[in-house]
Structures are given as structure tokens and as C-alpha cells.
Design brief:
By secondary structure, this protein is an alpha+beta fold. It has one domain: Beta Barrel (OB fold (Dihydrolipoamide Acetyltransferase, E2P)). The chain contains four helices and seven strands, in the order H-E-E-H-E-E-E-E-H-H-E. The protein starts with a helix and ends with a strand.
Length: about 150
């Protein structure tokens, strides 16, 4: 009887330990990519110095996520700017609670002019007030990224 109870307890604790470890495993969204050879996102502006588009694999920290669906995220470029990341063909989303998490993503980085309507839409998705949304009056040149796959670490 004591052996059965001991065996049961060992099984339960082993299962809990495996479950706890699996919670810390990376999560994959979109195409399954790997983290190998990912450049730090802070290097992206320099990597794109003479071009407006670049296929890249980068890693960085999530600053914000679309609170409507998880359909975009902002990545800190480390220079006071953020890069808006969207997902290829609107084909996948990321969890809405990953702000502060480290991610690896693969896709196409671009430097482009973002129109006022799109900037206002992003501000609404981020939960900004009506006054903050209305204050957006000018297009902005921004780094953007169209990801084919994302790893949340």
C-alpha cells in the first residue's frame, strides 16, 4: 500500500515537473522557423542603410501587441523607434499578452511611409483614447516587418 501511494506521488510530481517545463518552451506562430543566425533587431536600420526592403531573421523585445486580435506587434528598435510587425497574409496572430517577451521572427523588413489612416487604426487597436487617435495628422516613415513566422521565447 505504501509503495502504491509513493509510486502515485512520484508520478504526479513528475507529471507536474514536465508540465511546468513545457510552459517555458518557445511558442511558434505561422511557419515554423528556427532562431539560428537571427540578428538583433537593433542592427536592422544599419543593415537597411542603402535599401528599403530586406529579407531578414531578427530577434527583439515586444513592446506592444494589438489588443483586438493579436494581429500586429511593436518591436523596440532600441533607438527610440518601434517597428510594426504584421503577419503574412493575415495568416496568423500572436497572443495579446506577450508585451515584454523576446521574439525571433523571419520575413521582410521594409522602410516605408505609413499613412495617417493606418497610424490611427493602429492607435485604436492599441487602446489609445479618441483624442490621441485624432492627434495623428501626418504620415510617418517607419520600419515595418511582414513576418512569415514568429517564435515567442
Amino acid at each position: 500500500m505504501k509503495t502504491s501511494i509513493l509510486s502515485l506521488l512520484v508520478t504526479i510530481f513528475t507529471s507536474l515537473a514536465v508540465y511546468a517545463q513545457s510552459d517555458k518552451a518557445p511558442s511558434y506562430f505561422g511557419e515554423k522557423i528556427d532562431a539560428e543566425n537571427a540578428n538583433d533587431v537593433t542592427e536592422l536600420p544599419e543593415m537597411m542603410a542603402d535599401q528599403n526592403e530586406l529579407t531578414a531573421k531578427v530577434k527583439g523585445t515586444v513592446q506592444a501587441v494589438c489588443q483586438a486580435k493579436g494581429c500586429w506587434m511593436d518591436i523596440d528598435l532600441g533607438n527610440g523607434e518601434v517597428m510594426k510587425v504584421k503577419f503574412k497574409d493575415y495568416g496568423f496572430f500572436v497572443p495579446k499578452d506577450i508585451a515584454g517577451s523576446n521574439v525571433v521572427m523571419e520575413g521582410i523588413a521594409r522602410r516605408e511611409m505609413v499613412d495617417v489612416e493606418t497610424l490611427q487604426h493602429y492607435a485604436e487597436d492599441a487602446g489609445k483614447s479618441e483624442e490621441e487617435v485624432a492627434a495623428i495628422k501626418d504620415p510617418e516613415e517607419k520600419y515595418t516587418f511582414e513576418a512569415i513566422g514568429v517564435i515567442v521565447q
